[in-house]
Structures are given as structure tokens and as C-alpha cells.
Amino acid sequence: MICENHTRVTEFILLGFTNHPKMQVALFILFLAIYTVTLLGNFLIVTVTSVDPTLQTPMYFFLRNLSLLEVCFTLVMVPKMLVDLVSPRKIISFVGCGTQMYFFFLFGSSECFLLSMMAYDRFVAICNPLRYSVIMNRSLCWWMAMGSWMSGVPVSMLQTAWMMALPFCGPNAVDHFFCDGPPVLKLVTVDTTMYEMQALASTLLFIMFPFSLILVSYTRIIITILRMSSATSRQKAFSTCSSHLIVVSLF
Ligand SMILES: *[C@@H]1O[C@H](CO)[C@@H](O)[C@H](O)[C@H]1NC(C)=O
């Protein structure tokens, strides 16, 4: 779109958290420490689940994939945020902003889908244990992970391309620490109702669909666990899905 009296924005300023220099250094140190621990933890999970022969099961395959996804997801936001905390020019180019937004949407939706695939894995393991290794075979696991990674591609592309084609003619200060949808949309100088409705619809779809899958899986898991006769098998079944349940709740 063409801007009438102004030139089109070519770069954005990321306002971040604060202007206070001391506060910025403190946040830099804090976030760098958290980020380092996150990276180390995820690399540890990927390494251990790759080399330990007793962990070559679908559950650990998905866990490894989730760790990899988590590394990618944080890579989109955190390094740039850290650099901006200590640099005087908190600038991101127009294309950089679109790229960041695309990958943020993509990995966000991938994570929703991967978590629901992991719930399905627990459902088969607990509700259909005798056929587990037949159903959750190598190729199905690979496709479930691949499908999760790819699930967000069309929608993320549409959302990002549509957003970046809107007219940015005036202000260019993004009130956030990365190019997320809503704070960037605020800078558009025309009515954005159509875009917002589309964004709401696709966000609902990308949250509600995986969430319903998780809900259905866990309902069936809980019913099966409650029907188990011995307390030990109940506990054992529950312990294999408790960590996944915690991750889903946190996410
Ligand atoms: C994650 O899943 C994808 C697609 O199935 C696969 O190609 C990749 O190797 C997996 N990554 C890890 C670290 O297991």
C-alpha cells in the first residue's frame, strides 16, 4: 500500500522493557542467565534421549522434538532482545520484523500441535498398551512430529504477509521486545478490523483444535486409570503422563 503524505516505514524501533540503563543491564544479566540454562537444559535432553538406548521410545522422541522446538522458539526472540537491552539503537528492519513474526507464529502453533501429539501418545500408551508399539510405530511418530512442525506454515505465512502489506505510514515504535502481532498492528494507519477478525479466527482454531485433542486424550486416560484395579499400576500409568500434563498446563 502507498502512503500519501509520508514515506513508508522501513525499520521499527523496539521499545522493550525500560529506558533505565541500570535496569537494562540487570535485566540483561538475568535473561542471559535464564536463556543459558534453557539452552543447556534443552541440549541435555536432546543429547541424552539420542544416545541412551533405553530412551528410544515414542515418548522420548517427542520430548526431544519438543526440546528442539523450544530452542528454535526462544532463538526467534531472546538473542535479539538481549542485544537490544544493551545497545543504544533498538532497531529492527521491516523485513527482519516480518521474519521474526513469521517464525514466532510458526513455532507457536507447532508447539500447540506437538503437545497434542504427545497427549495422543500417552493416550495410546495407557488406553491401548498391548497395541502401543504397533500403533505408534517409527513412521507414524515421524509424521506426527513433521505434521506439527508444518501445521502452522500456511497460516503464519498468510498472517505475516497480510500484516506486512498493510500501510505503515506513521509511527514506527513497537511497544514490545519483539515483533509480535498486536503491538505491530497498532502502528497500522488504516482500519484493521478485517485483519483482526482473521487473526482471531485462526488463533482460536490453532488453540482450540489441539486443546480439544488434549482434553479428549486426558479424559480417556483418566477414565482408564480410574478403572485400574491395583494402586501401583494406577500410579505407574499416571507418572508417565504427569510431566506432560505439567508442560501443557504451563504452556
Ligand atoms: C523432530 O521431528 C522431525 C520430523 O519428524 C525429524 O525430522 C527430526 O529429526 C526430529 N528431531 C529430533 C531432534 O528428534
Helix content: over 70%
| Share in β-strands | under 5%
CATH level-4 homologous superfamily: Rhodopsin 7-helix transmembrane proteins
What number is the mean pLDDT?
92
Low-confidence runs of at least 5 consecutive residues: none
What string, H for helix and E for strand, traces the elements in order?
Answer: EHHEHHHHEHHH
Which second-level CATH architecture applies? Up-down Bundle
Class by alpha and beta content? mainly alpha
Q: What's the tally of helices?
A: 9
* CATH C-level class: Mainly Alpha
User: Could you say which small molecules are bound to this protein?
Assistant: 2-acetamido-2-deoxy-beta-D-glucopyranose
Strand order within the widest sheet? 2-1-3
Question: How many beta-strand runs?
Answer: 3
Domains, number: 1
The CATH topology: Rhopdopsin 7-helix transmembrane proteins
Describe the secondary-structure layout:
Layout: E1 11-14, H1 21-51, H2 58-86, E2 91-93, H3 94-127, H4 132-135, H5 138-151, H6 153-165, E3 173-174, H7 181-185, H8 193-227, H9 231-250
Parallel strand pairs: 1-3
Antiparallel strand pairs: 1-2
Helix pairs in contact: 1-2, 2-3, 2-5, 3-5, 3-6, 3-8, 3-9, 6-8
Characterise this structure.
With 251 residues, this protein is mostly helical. It starts with 10 loop residues before the first strand and ends with a helix. The protein is elongated. It has a three-stranded mixed β-sheet. It has helices spanning 21-51, 58-86, 94-127, 132-135, 138-151, 153-165, 181-185, 193-227, 231-250, and strands at 11-14, 91-93, 173-174. Helices cover 74% and strands 4% of the residues. The protein contains nine helices and three strands, in the order βααβααααβααα. The structure holds 2-acetamido-2-deoxy-beta-D-glucopyranose (NAG). 2-acetamido-2-deoxy-beta-D-glucopyranose is lined by residues 46, 64-65, 68, 142, 145-146, 149.
